[in-house]
Write a structure and sequence with these properties.
With about 120 residues, the chain is mostly beta strands. It is built from no helices and eleven strands. Strands 2, 4, 5, 6, 9, 10 and 11 form a seven-stranded mixed sheet that branches. It has a four-stranded antiparallel sheet with strand order 1-3-8-7, with no helix packed on it.
Length: about 120
């Protein structure tokens, strides 16, 4: 299983970015696709997740309203639309796939496959 995250870059505060996560290697209908981020000196943080089959979504409270996760089954690609970006959103963003139990969707340890990360830098 391979995950390829892309779409990061340098933007100003208030801007938007859309990250993509291309998946290959197996059928993902059982999987949850999660987005995590890690800022320098901080622990990896859950951002959002989407169940590949059915499209159920989960968000970290601090991301609700600004970030939207979606997926395109035909393209085996998931997306993270990020609006109203703030300098505090600066981090390496990772996509991951796994089969977490419902109550552990936000736990990175529940995810088996990880992409390489894409850097998002938000300037003030």
């Amino acid at each position: 299983v391979q995950l390829q995250a892309s779409g990061g870059g340098l933007v100003q505060a208030g801007a938007s970015l859309r990250l993509s996560c291309g998946a290959s290697g197996r059928t993902f209908s059982r999987y949850v696709l999660g987005w995590f981020r890690q800022a320098p000196g901080k622990e990896r943080e859950f951002v959002a997740a989407i169940r590949w089959s059915g499209g159920t979504t989960v968000y970290a409270d601090s991301m609700k309203g600004r970030f939207t996760v979606s997926r395109d089954n035909a393209k085996n690609t998931a997306y993270l639309q990020m609006n109203s970006l703030e300098p505090e959103d600066t981090a390496v963003y990772y996509c991951a796939a796994g089969v977490p139990i419902l109550t552990a969707t936000m736990d990175p340890n529940m995810y088996t496959y990880w992409g390489q990360g894409t850097l998002v830098t938000v300037s003030s």
